[in-house]
Specification:
Layout (H helix, E strand, L loop, with lengths): L17 H16 L4 H11 E9 L8 E4 L1 H14 L3 E5 L5 E4 L2 E10 L6 E10 L2 E11 L8
Parallel strand pairs: 1-7
Antiparallel strand pairs: 1-2, 3-5, 4-5, 5-6, 6-7
Helix pairs in contact: 1-2, 2-3
Length: 150
C-alpha cells in the first residue's frame, strides 16, 4: 500500500452492460470480500478485476489514504483485514442497494460480528471497463469510535 499519487486511465465513452455490472458487484461482495480462502478469492478475482485494478481506501485510523494496486495486492490486503478482524462477516446492507450508471457502480455493505452485523456500514464505488472492475473506492458510512475490537 502506498499513499503516493497515482492515476488511472479509463474510457471516456463507457458502454457497460448494467446487468453484468450488478452481477460483478454482487460477486465482489459475496465471493471476494466475503471469501476467507485467499487462493479461492484470487481465482474469483481473475474474472472480475483488471490485473492492474486500483483500490482507494479511506484514512479512518492511520490518517493516510491508502492506494492498493494490482489484483494480488488487493487480495493480500483483503486477507490482512480479515486476519485483523476474525469473526467479522461482510453482507449486503439490508438498507443498501446496488446502483449503476454508465460505467460506475455503487454497492452498499455492512461488516461486523454475527451479533452486530452492521457495526460498520460502507459502500464501494466501482469503475468498470470491458465488463471488469478497473478501480474502486471505499467510503465508510458508519464506523465505531476507534478501531473495532476483536
Amino acid at each position: 500500500m502506498s499513499s503516493r499519487q497515482t492515476s488511472i486511465s479509463i474510457s471516456t465513452s463507457p458502454h457497460e452492460d448494467p446487468e453484468t455490472m450488478r452481477s460483478v458487484m454482487d460477486t465482489h461482495i459475496e465471493s471476494v470480500f466475503g471469501e476467507t480462502d485467499e487462493a479461492a478469492r484470487g481465482k474469483t478475482m481473475a474474472s472480475l478485476y483488471h490485473e492492474d485494478v486500483t483500490w482507494f481506501q479511506p484514512a479512518e485510523y492511520s490518517g493516510e489514504h491508502a492506494i492498493v494496486r494490482g489484483r494480488d495486492n488487493v487480495n493480500a490486503t483483503i486477507q490482512k483485514e480479515q486476519n485483523q478482524f476474525p469473526g467479522f462477516y461482510i453482507t449486503h446492507d439490508n438498507e443498501g442497494y446496488i446502483a449503476v450508471t454508465q460505467n460506475l457502480g455503487v454497492v452498499h455493505w455492512q461488516l461486523g460480528p454475527r451479533e452486530q452485523p452492521d457495526m460498520i456500514k460502507a459502500c464501494h464505488y466501482l469503475l468498470f471497463e470491458d465488463g471488469k472492475i478497473k478501480a474502486f473506492w471505499t467510503a465508510h458510512l458508519k464506523m465505531p469510535k476507534g478501531p473495532p475490537s476483536e
